[in-house]
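User: Please fill in residues for this 415-position structure.
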């Protein structure tokens, strides 16, 4: 049947026992199919230029699209065909594109649940990405581009963010997108051509001078004394009111946790997170060694650290007042839960000790620096610190200038 497809025609058409088509007399390829159920659908029939294959493009039902709108859409479709395009192929590609989740959806629906089961840093990684890349969260994964990341990188650095921090953020997102590629949600990694921000080689190595270490130790002694006085005062207060009295401290016990944590850190080089995750079963006082479990290590690999005399004494004193089960934390937080930070306490200690620009992590630098200055080779220092390769440990190489001097001296010929 041939007729000009108009709104009036649509209203007069009646269904038959079999489907039939009405071909428009003005726009070749534009048609209307009427089903036995009464459903009417606008269509556009065309042939693919390269193959000559006859295809049918569904525009929409008469209940959703007017005859005039359908005619306009048919003109666009036929125009694409005349330029050698296949409208159905383009529509299929668009539908597939809509199935690709946005970064936000991928984090919430797929990646987070996987990360919790496989990554120790799952929550912090997801939180870092959501905080660092807010403008990209609603972008489908396959629409992320290298240009976006380069633009983001430049803006972050201009905003005063350190290049090393920018690189950590990029690395976190790179690993997330790698998982999306592994799961075939995207065919190519959008960060494949993204380069890291340029970082200068002047790595920060802050360690304590002898005078600073002495001040720190004096502060810890004073802090312990004051904490012991407070404990005893509180004990007498409860006793005077006939309240349950806490057990009196043994003279050798620590009154609070900061002092043993600091002393253990400067004698083992433990990272703060490794210290927080330390369990009673990880400490072998008789064998004088400490184990960093793989699950608690940043590298994901376990390592053993020998305990020197001071470290053994510190742990012995602390554990004497902390009867723990094997899987209990050595330095627990409130209600036995894992500590999340000790920033306030450490800030007070550092200020009282007159330590300028000295972070908790610098206790680890202090441990490594003292080893190198004592003549310990860098590879041994690397193993004690738990570095994956020697590159990170080389930041301490300048602290052993006598090694370089000996090497250069070998060039001198004998007279």
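Assistant: Residues filled in for all 415 positions:
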């Amino acid at each position: 049947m041939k007729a000009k497809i108009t709104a009036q025609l649509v209203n007069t058409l009646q269904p038959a026992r079999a489907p039939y088509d009405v071909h428009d007399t003005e726009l070749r390829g534009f048609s209307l199919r009427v089903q036995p159920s009464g459903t009417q659908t606008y269509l556009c029939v065309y042939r693919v230029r390269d193959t000559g294959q006859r295809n049918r493009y569904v525009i929409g039902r008469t209940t959703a699209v007017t005859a005039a709108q359908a005619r306009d859409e048919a003109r666009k479709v036929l125009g694409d065909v005349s330029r050698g395009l296949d409208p159905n192929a383009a529509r299929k590609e668009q539908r597939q594109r809509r199935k690709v989740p946005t970064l936000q959806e991928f984090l919430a629906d797929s990646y987070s649940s996987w990360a919790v089961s496989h990554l120790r840093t799952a929550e912090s990684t997801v939180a870092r990405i959501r905080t660092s890349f807010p403008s990209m969260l609603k972008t489908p994964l396959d629409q992320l581009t290298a240009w976006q990341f380069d633009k983001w990188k430049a803006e972050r650095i201009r905003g005063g963010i350190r290049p090393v921090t920018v690189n950590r953020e990029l690395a976190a997102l790179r690993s997330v997108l790698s998982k999306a590629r592994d799961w075939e949600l995207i065919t190519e990694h959008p960060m494949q051509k993204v380069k890291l921000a340029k970082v200068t080689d002047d790595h920060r190595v802050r360690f304590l001078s002898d005078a600073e270490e002495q001040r720190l130790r004096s502060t810890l002694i004073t802090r312990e004394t004051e904490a012991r006085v407070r404990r005893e005062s509180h004990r007498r207060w409860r006793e005077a009111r006939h309240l349950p009295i806490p057990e009196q401290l043994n003279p050798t016990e620590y009154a609070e946790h900061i002092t043993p944590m600091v002393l253990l850190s400067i004698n083992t080089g433990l990272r703060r997170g490794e210290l927080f995750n330390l369990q009673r079963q990880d400490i072998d006082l008789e064998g004088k060694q400490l184990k960093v479990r793989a699950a608690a290590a940043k590298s994901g690999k376990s390592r053993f650290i020998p305990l020197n005399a001071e470290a053994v004494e510190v742990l012995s004193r602390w554990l004497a007042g902390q009867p723990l089960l094997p899987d209990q934390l050595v330095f627990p937080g409130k209600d036995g839960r894992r500590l999340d930070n000790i920033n306030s306490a450490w800030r007070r200690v550092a200020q009282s000790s007159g330590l300028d620009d000295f972070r908790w992590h610098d206790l680890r630098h202090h441990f490594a620096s003292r080893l190198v200055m004592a003549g310990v080779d860098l590879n041994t220092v690397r193993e004690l610190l738990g570095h994956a390769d020697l590159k990170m440990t080389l930041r301490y190489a300048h602290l052993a200038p006598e090694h370089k001097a000996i090497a250069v001296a070998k060039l001198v010929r004998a007279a």
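For context: The chain has three domains: 7-99, 103-182, 210-405.
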